[in-house]
Amino acid sequence: MNCRLTFSKTGRLRFVGHLDTTEALRRAVRRAGLPVKYSGGFNPHMEVKLAAPLPLGMEGLGEYADIALTWDLDESEICERLNSNLPGGLVIRQVSARPDGEKSTAALLRRAEYKVQIKLNDLNEIQKNFVRFIAMNELYIEKKTKAGVKNVNIRKDIFELALAENSVEMTLALGGEGSLSSETVTRLLLGGDYDMAEPRYTRTRLILTTDLNGQDEWKP
Predict the structure, then answer these.
(1) For 10-67, how does the pLDDT look when each residue is reduced to its tens digit (9 = 90+)?
(2) CB–CB of 182/116 below 8 Å?
(3) 3-state class (DSSP) for residue 157
(4) Over the stretch 151-204, which tens digit does the pLDDT of each residue have?
(5) Which residue among 18, 89, 108, 179 sits deepest, i.e. has the most Cβ atoms within 10 Å of its Cβ?
(6) Alpha helices, DSSP H only, in 57-214?
(7) Three-state SS across the chain?
(8) Tell me: the pLDDT tens digits for 83-110?
(9) CA distances from 67 to 18, 38, 170, 186 (A)
(10) Is 145 exposed, middle or buried (0-12, 13-18, 19+ CB in 10 A)?
(11) What's the predicted TM-score (pTM) here?
């Protein structure tokens, strides 16, 4: 039985790194007594894999992990047994069986939605940058690659951008053929006010190819 776990990671656990989060899930699986599969070879490991690492300090409300079991169990039972053994701030929201032969959740990732809370009284400069962003068809930044530093057009990786009174909401590319950091976009929007704004990041949703209904094109 292949399952997809939907979970949240909030509060102080946002300062726990990717490897430690994975280990917390694996520890909960062991304590819950779930019939988890192990890989083969000389160093077998539990088949529990997070779909996308969260940057340190960022909360996640709709994160994904894949888990493989040796026999079928009721999804609600899996959810209950795991939550009884997870630390506070790490909560399984849903367990769903994945179809046989489906790609891993990590391979299906295409976009992510973010909410960035900011603390600024004067939003005039941000609003100017926001209007400029929306009007652009191209937006180049310098990016380090294995071949050296080159200019990269990141506008194609920004699918949605909205400005509220005390937050910025955005949908950015993740996985597939490229990813764009929410911090990069926020720094461009805030400019010199970035540190003063004390941005706090939350990844609210991960979007898969199956969520897009075949409409995976960029629309400026």
Answers:
(1) 999 999 999 999 999 999 999 999 999 998 778 888 889 999 999 999 999 999 999 9
(2) yes
(3) helix
(4) 889 899 999 999 888 899 999 999 877 899 999 999 998 888 889 999 999 999
(5) 108
(6) 75-83, 105-108, 124-135, 182-190, 194-197
(7) CEEEEEEEECHHHHHCCHHHHHHHHHHHHHHHCCCECECCCCCCCECEEECCCCCCCCEEEEEEEEEEECCCCCHHHHHHHHHCCCCCCEEEEEEEECCCCCCCHHHHEEEEEEEEECCCCCCHHHHHHHHHHHHCCCCEEEEEECCEEEEEECHHHEEEEEECCCEEEEEEECCCCCCCCHHHHHHHHHHHHHHHHCCEEEEEEEEEHHHCCCCCCCCC
(8) 999 999 999 999 999 988 889 999 999 9
(9) 16, 10, 29, 34
(10) exposed
(11) 0.90
Q: Which residue has the tokens 């849903």?
A: 94
Q: Which residue has tokens 């917390």?
A: 24
Q: Which domains does the chain have, with CATH numbers?
A: 2-102 (3.30.70.580), 108-211 (3.30.70)
Residues recorded for the chain: 220
Structure tokens, 149? 């530093």
Q: What are phi and psi of 204, to 5 degrees?
A: -85, -25
Nearest C-alpha neighbor of 158 from the set 170, 144, 143, 142: 170
